[in-house]
Structure formats: C-alpha cells, structure tokens
Amino acid sequence: MKKNTIGRVLACQVCGSGGLTPILSLGHQPIVQEYLKEEGLHEPEVTYPLNAVLCRKCGLLQLDYIPDPKVVFPPHYPYRTGLTNMLIRNFRELADILERDYPWKKGDLIVDVGSNDGTLLSGFKDKGMKVLGVEPTGAAKVANKNGIKTIQDFFNNKVVNYIKKKYGLAKVITAANVFAHINDAPALAKNISNLLDKNGVFISESQYLMDIVEKLEFDTIYHEHLRFYSLKPIKGLLEDAGMSMIDAERISAAGGSIRVYAKKGKWPVSSRAKDLMRKEEEAGLTDEKTLLDFAAKAYEAKNDLLALLLKLKKGGARIAALTSPARSNPLLNFTKINDTILDYAGEKKGSPKIGLYTPGTHIRVVDESRIFEDQPDYVLVLSWHIGQELIKKVREAGYKGKFILPLPVPRIVNLK
Ligand SMILES: [Zn+2]
C-alpha cells in the first residue's frame, strides 16, 4: 500500500488503491484559517491545490493534495468550539446518549482527539469521567485554563503510548470533526484502536457525504477536510484497524454529519446503520455519475452567485457578509467574491478574526455591530447552513436590509 500523508495524493487515503477519478476542482486556495493582518495584504499568499477525487475501489471522496498539518493547524489556529452554540448542544446530547447506552464507571477515562477548547469533554467531566484532550493548536491552552486536562500535540503513536503509560486505556474515545482531518487515516484508526479498552467505545463525528451532496455543501471542501465520508469507507477503515462499526446515525452538526460508533473486535452492525448503508447504495452516493452531477451543480451555483452579486453591485447596492466562518473562504475564493464586492464581514463580538482580512479575498472582518449601524442593503449569509437561525437573530437585533443565501441556490430572502 502506497503511503501518502503529505503532498499530492496518488493513492486512496483509506484503502491505498490507485486510479483516483477527478470530481470537483475548486482551484488553488489559501488555508481557510490563515486570516491576514493588514501588512499581510502586501505580501505573497501561499495557495494549495483544492480538488476532490473519488476512489473507485472503496468509494471515498477525498482531496488530492494534503498540506502539512502544521500549516493547517498551527498554534495560532483561531477556531474555538465553545463559540458555536450548535456544537455545544450537540456534545451535551452526545454525553447523555453515551451515559445511557454505554455506561461507564466514575473515574473511567475518556480521550477526545482534536479536543479544541475542551467543550466536548466538559460535559463528560460533569458526569464523573476522567477527561483528557489531545489538541495541537493553542486551543489546548484555553482548555487547560478551564480545567480540562489537554496535551498540546498531534494525536500520534508517541502521544498514544504516553497516555497508555500515564493514564491507562480509554473507555471512551471521541473524534468529533477531526476523523477526516488527520492526514494518515490508517495510522489514526490504529492509534485509536491501540488506546481503546476492550470494552470501550469509539465515536467519530464527521461531515456526511450524503448531506454534502443533498444540500450542495461544496463549501465544506477545504484543506482541513481531507476525506468526505460515507459509511462504506469508514467501515473498512475501522475493520483494518481491528475495530467494528456497530452503529451509526445522522446528526445535524456542521451542516449534517454522521456519528459512528465502533468497538474493538468483531461485532454485528445495528439495523439503523444497515439502513443508512442501504440508502447510500440506493442514492448511488459513491458513484462517479452522482458525484459529477454534484460537481456540475456546484459550478452552476458558483456562476449564479457571482452574477447575482455583480448585478446588485451594478445597481449601486451596498453588500456586507454576515459572519466569516472557515467554510466561507473556499466559497469566496472559488467564486472570486472579494473586497471589491463585499464591504466587510461582520463577526460575533469576541471573535479572534475581528480586525483581520479573509485569506485570498481580503475582506475586512469587523464586529457585527457595524451591520446594525451601517444597514447595508444586503448581507450575504455565509453560515448559510444555520441561515434561518442567524437571519432571525440579526433581524431581531435590528438589521432592516435583505438577506442573500449563497447555496444551494443563490437567492435573496426578505423576511419580515
Ligand atoms: Zn479507497
């Protein structure tokens, strides 16, 4: 099996098979979290190829280029889980489910891979588990400050051996929105298996290819997400590492995700997971034709969105962006929507992005209060996956203009 952990991907990231089929090309793009300071606007910017390709053998949709993880998840990585209400709710729910279905003893160990600021673990700490996070970015410091013990490092063989020696095996391992992010997938799965107690459970949450295709969420394709999972390749990946997928469910997190439960050894799979796999099969989710159709719709939406904004701009409209999530940057770069079209992007108070500029498109990020002072004619809702919730909130807070939803079909909404 060919190893490809950094750089161009010449063999499938999960099964190692060659012959990857090109599906969608989003051009060369900067790293989504590399927001620029003012002086950065006068320097060159590094970009990386951003293309999704399909493995014909295992059906994994994946990027064809893996940047160095130190570049994608640097110590100054700004994302904080605890600022996203949807994720706080999601992780509370997960803690309740696990307490009910996979009961643990007080003091049993839970390890969260890519634990960010410790938001997921805090719910388990409250329920009496011994918690440990592993997180390479500076979010680890925030977690430690909040009393969530966190090792600031990448989750690798060395860290796993250290944890086993110092804390023992884990009764629960979680990997929420990181199972598709870590570059060597087979090694990742083996490290998890190696750390998991024989009666333990491993839970991963990843964006689900079914949601990406159904809702045309091609803006979630960027360098942090190296793989776009359906159940078939996940099942194979777990089995190769000595685990079994025992259950799976669709959840609403991150615009639609798949939560997968696994145990060590050979176990039967639940009927609801079987159901989901059957639905994937019926939808032709990993067929070349389905995915090329998805790509064609993405290209069309890109052109329509740019045309809509240019038309409004030509009519003299003032347009700002509502929020500046990571996932908006591939969309803005792909559609060539930059600071000549959007006056600024308004972010929630306290966001570390305020005062910086969006990578590649150089739109200034400001405190969202500016939107209420300025009253631009339109705001482009970049977190469109939680669009209804945001629109309601911003309308209630006093914004009087119109909203533009960029995807799946670019359109103006004028809610009262
Ligand atoms: Zn494959």
Give the tags.
416 residues; Rossmann fold; 7-stranded mixed beta sheet; 6-stranded mixed beta sheet; globular; binds zinc ion
Helix content: 25-40%
Supply the number of helical segments: 13
Radius of gyration (CA) equals 21 Å
- Terminus-to-terminus distance: 57 Å
Q: What ligands does this structure carry?
A: zinc ion
- What is the averaged pLDDT score? 94
SS-derived structural category:
alpha/beta
Main sheet characteristics = 7 strands, mixed
Multimer state: single chain
Low-confidence segments, given as residue ranges, are: none
Report the top-level CATH class of the largest domain: Alpha Beta
SSE arrangement:
Blueprint: E1 7-8, E2 20-29, E3 48-55, E4 61-63, E5 65-66, H1 69-72, H2 85-101, E6 109-113, H3 119-126, E7 130-134, H4 139-145, E8 150-151, H5 157-167, E9 170-176, H6 185-195, E10 196-207, H7 209-214, E11 227-228, H8 231-240, E12 243-251, E13 257-264, H9 271-283, H10 288-314, E14 319-322, H11 328-335, E15 345-347, E16 365-367, H12 369-374, E17 378-381, H13 387-396, E18 402-405, E19 411-413
Parallel strand pairs: 6-7, 6-9, 7-8, 9-10, 14-15, 14-17, 15-16, 17-18
Antiparallel strand pairs: 1-5, 2-3, 3-4, 4-11, 10-13, 12-13, 18-19
The structure holds zinc ion (ZN).
Architecture overview:
α2 (85-101) packs parallel to α3 (119-126) and α5 runs parallel beside α6 (185-195). It is globular, with a radius of gyration of 21 Å. It has a 7-stranded mixed β-sheet with strand order 8-7-6-9-10-13-12, sandwiched between helices. A 6-stranded mixed β-sheet has the order 16-15-14-17-18-19, sandwiched between helices. Strands 2-3-4-11 form a 4-stranded antiparallel β-sheet, covered by helices on one side. It is built from 13 helices and 19 strands. It has helices at 69-72, 85-101, 119-126, 139-145, 157-167, 185-195, 209-214, 231-240, 271-283, 288-314, 328-335, 369-374, 387-396, and strands at residues 7-8, 20-29, 48-55, 61-63, 65-66, 109-113, 130-134, 150-151, 170-176, 196-207, 227-228, 243-251, 257-264, 319-322, 345-347, 365-367, 378-381, 402-405, 411-413. The chain has 2 domains: 81-286, Rossmann fold (3-Layer(aba) Sandwich); 316-413, NAD(P)-binding Rossmann-like Domain (Rossmann fold, 3-Layer(aba) Sandwich). The chain is of the alpha/beta class and 416 residues long. The chain starts with 6 loop residues before the first strand and ends with a strand. β17 (378-381), α13 (387-396) and β18 (402-405) form a beta-alpha-beta unit. 33% of the residues lie in helices and 23% in strands. The longest helix has 27 residues, at 288-314. It binds zinc ion (ZN). Zinc ion (ZN) is lined by residues 12, 14-15, 17, 55, 57-58, 60.
